[in-house]
Amino acid sequence: MDYLKHEEFFLEEAWAVYESYFLNKSDFIVKYNEINSLENKSEFLRVISRYHYLVKDLTYSSLKSHGLELDFVSATHKFITIIALIESLYHEAKHIDFYEWLMRGNTFPLSKEELKKEYKKYKDEFGSRKSIIHFFSSLDSDIITYIQESITLLNFKNASLNDKSSIEQLSNLLYQIRSDFIHNAELVVELSDVSTIAKRNEKPYLFELSLLSFCKIFELGVLKFFNIKPDKNSTLLDYRGFTLLQE
To answer: Where are the domains of the chain?
Structure first.
């Protein structure tokens, strides 16, 4: 798809997503035109138009449930789509398969345990996990703090020991949620409008992060990725009554 060939059309799609972030459409287009290359402009339009179609403007429902929206199905598909779009932002990095990566060093022979360690290093360098960690770690500090306060590792024996995780740890958790769906078709139940306790990697977490808030975090992250500064961040009160971002 040549996004720049149909630039006017796709800018309308992007504006539908970002209308609340800018004073007016003209100001948004000025900021868009400051993107530093035609390739990056095309990439911005690609990511945001797909996000608009597959997440922002899409509702999942079932005829068997009389057309009622299925929140957990919707959250699952939209979460996986957002994670896939994040991964696609970093597609330019040269991929090397595990065997080629091993052959770059003089590491042979390897024991089973050593091979596991090398594979972890490889995944950290070239896996999808790295893209997710980089995206969330690059967010503004107030958004990172919000994420940290919205996902808590629980200690049932002593609530005072409930853990405030680093953004890298939470990025790994989001990657795990993605992988649990990709490999085991486990639904995403965490992004709800009520507080939810879920277990991932045998660890219990309290999630107070709605799908709406997660979408806004992604929208702001994409602007940050392309060095676009919004005029305003549009106040969003999450279901707990906390302000996510101030204008």
So the answer is: 7-92+127-225, 94-126
